[in-house]
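Sharing a chain and its predicted structure for anyone who wants a worked example. Both blocks are below, sequence first, tokens second.
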Amino acid sequence: MKIECSDEEQRAINSLKRVAKKWPKTLWLFSASGTLWVMKRGLEGERVKNRDGGVDKDYIIESIDIPNDGGDW
């Protein structure tokens, strides 16, 4: 079964694809508790972790209000 998208939905998907092509390697996206966070990478391009091995909140740049889920399949 193929799910059909409205024109508005398809424009939003296409917009995200355009952003992905220009996305700087110095940033990454992190999804936690339904919030999408823009994170800065470390000096060597790594995803910086805190002492406990979790994402270092000091590297948060911005939150983006797009519904999301960081769960696994």
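Comments welcome. The two ends are 19 Å apart (CA to CA).
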